[in-house]
């Protein structure tokens, strides 16, 4: 089968979804008001509440939600074959992710830019809010751990990418200063920054001295360096420490100094990357060698696990945190919410689609695919590497050398993962402060105390579980638990939007139907996971950790659902704010 057909069909579905379905939702369901005074204007402080043009905000929002997850998830999920992954990405984006991301943004804007956790208190009750805040806290903690693990591993495997990634930081600070202090345009400086980054990537790919290879510095993979660690593990440890120091600083700076300009660079990087890959696809038109349904995938059932393996790229609860945590505080006009929220979800679907195509075309034969995807564990461990090799292969279609293409693709993945990591740590700081305020622990409401708690706990989670292959290899095993937690959060957010719509007398089925689907699939998958972890309880610290976190989240979610059912059918709901 020619892989170009997958891209054409997927793009048609996305275009119809944005042009017609999102327009109907905006006008008839969410009823956007161009005259509504958004929180960005109402509470403008130059730090978190900053009125931002929709193109710039879309860049921040898109790159915050389109991290490495819409690449990693599909690259793993094609284990079951390309067809179920393709259908979930395309239909899930249009009917679930779009209305979820768009809806949480509107709901937060109508509630003073508050997070979905705080809004839960108004719509359901205080107990549900506390449970929801703890679910969000656990989720962002896992996001921090998983994405830090992804970045550190890519730095270890692709040392030529390190220089470009670190060059992006001073370039973004320069752009932030030029735009917000000197009132310069952001487009040209961002393109210059991108040219500098890719120039450095080309040089580093060909000049070993420009490659920051810590494994080689620590003596290689076979030598014990210190603390019983070899060069690979030691390099991983150093990169985790460097990343945690970086995100501490980045997440406490005003958004205009680093977060927004770097995300704007990344939005162009994403567009350039997608153009390269889709152009390469058009020229090469590689054949799909992976099966539509993989009959050999019999160790783990695709139903329901597919729907939590591909979280970002179809629907993701983390997007609701970004929409209500940062994007709602920067929305200049309420009518921009469709462009930022729904189109942001579509953009991520486009990324997930090319991730599927890259992986299912990288192998020469079906036999090679089934050998590489011999088990779900093999798919989890090798999925990201398969994507980078497959994407590099597509890039050769427009005459980019394979080694340079691999470096550029790894830079794109790391940049997106770093964006998500920054945003997630910032969100975790907000949530810790909110919990501290709720329980009158004033120390936790302090910016640097809350950030310290976020960074230290994230580092501990990524470093402590050793996994089956030693130090630092437990990160990818957190992925299924991240997926279930992420989807449960999406289900709760859709539930909140449904309650809000019902109380406004509007058609709530738009969010209620995908909510039921997401809850059904995710709870089923999570119960399976918890039971599996229980059956192996005590066999290792990672197994115990996964069982404990999974069981706790499951209890919290059932509690929220019970509270929500009562709130949904309440004849006399508590009074809501005028903004709602």
TrEMBL record:
Q: Where in the cell is it found?
A: Cell membrane
Looking up InterPro entries in the UniProt record yields:
CstA, CstA_N
Membrane topology per the record?
Multi-pass membrane protein
Q: What are the record keywords, sorted?
A: Cell membrane, Membrane, Transmembrane, Transmembrane helix
One GO cellular component this record assigns the protein to is: plasma membrane
Principal localization reads membrane
Q: Name one GO biological process term.
A: cellular response to starvation
- Give the CstA N-terminal domain ranges: 2-362, 376-525
Q: Which domain of life is it from?
A: Bacteria
What residue ranges are annotated as transmembrane?
Answer: 6-21, 62-80, 86-109, 130-152, 158-180, 187-207, 227-249, 270-288, 300-318, 339-364, 404-422, 476-501, 508-527, 547-568
Q: Spell out the family assignment given in the record's similarity comment.
A: Belongs to the peptide transporter carbon starvation (CstA) (TC 2.A.114) family.
**What PANTHER family does the database record attribute to this sequence?**
INNER MEMBRANE PEPTIDE TRANSPORTER (PTHR30252), PEPTIDE TRANSPORTER CSTA (PTHR30252:SF0)
State what protein this is by name: Carbon starvation protein A
